Amino acid sequence: MKLIVFLVVLPWVAVFARNFSQDFDLTWGSDRVRILNNGELLTLSLDKDSGSAFQSKNEYLFGKISVQLKLVPDYSAGTVTSYYLASQGSTWDEIDFEFLGNLSGDPYTVHTNVITEGKGDREQQFRLWFDPTADFHTYSILWNPHVIIFYVDGTPIREFKNLDSTKVPFPESRAMRIHSSIWNADDWATKGGLIKTDWSKAPFTASFRNISAQACIWASGSGAYPCSSNSWQAKQLDAPSLERLMWVQKHYMIYNYCIDLKRFPQGLPLECAATT
Ligand SMILES: *[C@@H]1O[C@H](CO)[C@@H](O)[C@H](O)[C@H]1NC(C)=O
Ligand SMILES: *[C@@H]1O[C@H](CO)[C@@H](O)[C@H](O)[C@H]1NC(C)=O
Ligand SMILES: *[C@@H]1O[C@H](CO)[C@@H](O)[C@H](O)[C@H]1NC(C)=O
Predict the structure, then answer these.
(1) pLDDT tens track for 172-192
(2) Do 84 and 96 touch, CB atoms closer than 8 A?
(3) Which residue's alpha carbon is nearest to atom 11 within ligand 1?
(4) Which one of 25, 118, 175, 194 counts the least CB within 10 Å of its CB?
(5) Which one, of 23, 61, 60, lies nearest residue 39 by Cα?
(6) CATH architecture of 12-273
(7) pTM: predicted TM-score of the whole model, two decimal places
């Protein structure tokens, strides 16, 4: 029997991968952003004078964004490498992965946050179950109308649900760009700011490859959503995924704002009641 495969080109779903020259702009740090291997590899560096950053040309409203990232090796204390989605304006939305560096041999902290309408304070922090400087690993953000899920190598580490957006705002109307940067944050990043960046070890370099966005491109003004259906659009965590999430949270979560009663003496944020 002959199998016929129809290749449907969906108008609003972009799946791009592996070419940093075409789909991204350098936004900060001039030659500290380097695109190598014909657009397949991008490196960001930090030195005493400046950090560096890039962002996607397109804006998206919902999608699954992934990148393979290899973090600054050895002494990375004081440095922060970030990978996030963000909209613009004073009531912006943002979904963050930040990687807080450390002394040689000490573990990185993965710091996550969800900011809605300009308000964050929703940090969860994790250790990783591997050395993120030894090789590339995949970090993904899935963002659809129901949920935001953070993944590391396909394992969900955090979810933020759309509960009742009249009570807890959920990012669902502002298109976001993909951003990435490296900068000096030695006033807070490592052991609360006690350990400083060692400039004699600069430049500090993180590498990115295989960035992909299965996402609805926002055509300014026209409102591209809803875009064609796709596996990530209806996605919520199924029972096995939820089990893996719980496993990560049990063994690798080192900070959770949802149990930080000291920080929220007036009561925990509303969404915490429904958090897994
Ligand atoms: C990536 O894009 C650039 C600029 O458009 C092009 O010169 C290069 O050949 C592309 N690389 C690959 C691997 O397709
Ligand atoms: C750095 O390593 C120390 C010692 O293991 C740890 O307590 C700390 O959380 C690590 N990360 C940061 C960002 O300080
Ligand atoms: C590139 O990323 C995509 C999406 O995350 C993934 O399916 C694919 O396996 C990756 N390719 C390589 C060579 O790692």
Answers:
(1) 989 999 999 999 999 999 999
(2) yes
(3) 38
(4) 194
(5) 23
(6) Sandwich (2.60)
(7) 0.91
